User: Fold this.
Amino acid sequence: MKILSVSTATNHLSVALNEDQQVIVEKNERDERNHSEHLDPLIEEILKENKLTLNDIDRFAVAIGPGSYTGLRIGITTVKMFASILNKEVVGISTLQALAKGVKEPALVITGLDARNDNYFAAGYISGDIPKNVIPDGHYKIDVLIKAIQEYAAQNKVDKIVFVGSGLEKQDEKIKALNIPYEYGTDEQNVIHAGLIGQLAIDAQPVDPDKLLPRYLRRTQAEVDWHKKTGKPFEPDSHYVEEV
Amino acid sequence: MSEKKDIRILAYESSCDETSTAVIRNGREIESLIVATQIKSHQRFGGVVPEVASRHHIEVVSQITKEALNEANCGWKDIDAIAVTYGPGLVGALLIGVSAAKAASMATGIPLIGVDHIMGHIMAAQLKDEIEYPALALQVSGGHTEIVLLKDPVHFEIIGDTRDDAAGEAYDKIGRVLGVNYPAGKTIDAWAHEGKDTFNFPRAMMEDDDYDFSFSGLKSAFINTCHHADQIHEKLNKYDLAASFQAAVIDVLANKTIRAIKQYKPKTFIMGGGVAANHGLRDRMSAEIAKLPKADQPKVILPDIKLCGDNAAMIGAAAYNLYNDNQFADLTLNADPSLELPYAKSMLN
Assistant:
């Protein structure tokens, strides 16, 4: 099975071509601000070098979130259109699970993306070929995340924690206070690798391309404020869009 | 003589709060038009919230692609080009259309065309009637108020624009003062027809000999009038307020546009943009042009009301002209939120 996978979830752009479990090629562009300009040419480059067309791909995979809202939408829109037009399978993979997969040794992996002001899009996974989720993907204040780690460690044996992602070193004091051996991810581990997304995609359940949407894990501030002000419930998003 | 092949364009528009797709034949015929509007969502907030808009766009974009093709009874093999608005507009919103169109182009091998949203608004007229060049367009919307000279189907030049608020923006802002939810234009237009111009609001820059506009002074005068009345517990007639506001906007727009028509002598006069749906403005422009000597009267094309707001049909119409001019985009096409038509030399000083 040929899998083409994409991550535009952070400012690190990654595209990979996998054949079953094997990563044939992965290309990365670091600290790059224009995913819209770079993504399609990078996909085309990979296909050309491997003498393939999009039609030869069996399954598309994408980092589904959390991450930069605009970034996520670029990658997801792109693969959703590929799959929809070419009648191919498409799967969305948790950005945080993909980060956790970069850690090979046995550990509790806390993956987090800096969401500013001591907030993180974060989760806890047990490392492995398919990292097992133990603290759900969510938007956490650092203190809430630390508490979730403590609670997990109180009930499970944790020999070591690896903190992977962005902005977690800032919290070193709080992390040290957990009193569990820990380390931070390497530069390679701290970025999202499309090759790993491709490997996770093999066991994932394909979804209807029309229903493939970012997992933002956060409502917009405007919606939160509106809800507070009016007390009105959130309706499903589809209720707010009408064909005229 | 063999018949010329039909050119079909699948177009995308997602620059603000409407996600739209369309199939347009030969730049003139609408074979399908799908518009998914988010108005109901943004009315919760009293205006368009960019992040909410982007979230809604991605929810529908692949679905309405299929709908546009199905409704036009065609498949990808019948499509000659894929067109998309790449600016101006909200960057996150534009990126959904741009990403979708590029992905579709890559997946099908069909060439890609990037379209300026304003060029699109003006080309809504082409879906109604044949434009003879040179033409002159009054482009009025929530984000723009411009007089544009069309030398040919692809070379447009701005000869006048607003120095501050766009006309449509002023409508929404005074609408808020009157308790009218966004988009306020339609309600204010209807109220204006019930009232009289009794407040004599300022007509800014009307007598200046350029083609520029300013609406912030009018907006302030309107708001001050309402606040003052509030303070002395006087109730103002909302119909007269609407009529007075609208008269001031239309006087300036009509006055400057007619002067531009006299100077540039276009063969066609076009209106475009959301405010081109305003009945007061449509009637006034038609009446003013009818007053010109017969020989100086351009043909008038007012787009269908439903094509004045954002839609992909107008993008498909504009894209057809770019197609004929061989103006194609490649896969590096990006959203350009502050894209602008070129300014005429007379404006560059």
